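Input chain follows. Return structure tokens only.
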Amino acid sequence: MNKKINKVLVANRGEIALRIMRTLREMGIKSVAVYSAADISMPFVRYADEAYALEGNEARETYLDIQKVISVAKKSGADAIHPGYGFLSENPDFAYEAERAGIVFIGPGHTAIRTMGDKTEARKIVGASGVPIVPGTNEPVEDVQEALRIAREVGYPVLVKAAAGGGGKGMRLVRDEAELGPSLAGAQSEAKSAFGDGRVFIEKYVLGPRHIEFQILADHFGNAVHLFERECSIQRRHQKVIEETPSAALTPALREEMGKAAVNAAKACGYVNAGTVEFILGADGSYYFLEMNTRLQVEHPITELTTGLDLVREQIRIAEGEKLTFVQRDILRRGHAIECRIYAEDVGNNFLPDTGLLKVLREPVGNGVRVDSGVEEGSEISVYYDPMIAKLSVWDTTRENAIAKMLRALSEYIIVGVRTTIPFCAFVLRSEAFASGKYSTHFVEEYWKNGGSVSEGMGEDDLKKVLILAAFSLEGKKSRGANGAPRIEAGSRWLNKRFEE
């Protein structure tokens, strides 16, 4: 039975909270924000129709506290919760508590979240549906002797991986038997600390791997479709930094085959709502199921740019009990899109997080440029949460045009106060490996060389921009706009004069 949603509590923060709230406003649905003490002045709090404080700063006492969030949902009269990504988005207990309280959870049911969140269980279910899975174990590995036996069977190198969680935590690459014992113990310890679950399993390591994921949508009536792939191979610490669609690695035939496999994987667990099926693609063209993310992905904007669909709108429609209004053949993809995640990180120092105030923030604009941001000038990038500043996405008719547009947008992005991943993203986009489309998840190790001179990723225009920012402190005070911020033009004129000298 259909249930119209009138008010949604967004159980998240920052850019994804804002992004969800904007679609809610377009749909005439009220939004409710929850916020920690550290986030009291953030834009998403002001944008929401209602906002409620969660006492504390740490994630575990605010955004990760199930009972606090459910309590606010009841108090506010919200009839639905959207979890965004991260935090409680893939916590089956959160989905269950929402359902138990009579609140619509905008995502899959708690059973599907629990099933697909357990990587060993997911391997069993998906493998039984005929989707290729990486050779390895479907049960947790208990001790070193068992691990040695399995590793010999599948052949080195192997990966030791946490059965729960993700983000590269509880994962170790093992090249030979001498590394297996310490790696097993390290992965178990890290998994226990990060997820409260020390179970690990072993799978064959795929050589020359690329990370390809397919966006899927499924309704309550057994209808499921994919919205094509996203290439997510540019990573650091097993976490994505740059994504694009389409992938240069897929032929039309392989794309169709993997898309069908993604839909079959979703149907295998009775999946409903938006989700992402992730695959590892080998250098030989073989592909294997990796995992399923039972939520909206960080990189969903590039799928929206190429398909014209609003994924949050589709999530809400499905949660209201509506059928999908399209079938697979109706979904068309147009052009090429790229996303760069703009993190507050020191790319010259192993991508360590950087914190501080955003003293100057100027976002790029123009045709085909989208910035999903949760901050503004004067916002603080704190130690409490993920250091993402924004997601910069571009669209154009061809991959070459999209790369050029992204480089232009990156060159116009001005951030003062913290170090960011902008120089790294520019380095990647200018590299021959990326331009040719022949790259893997080892890009950082092969080309960046642990921070290899940040200046390698900067052209004259980039260096000029850095000096413009430095000029703010010298000349900007003498020329300020209506909002008190230094005028870019003043710094630029000062810089050009110095260059001429």
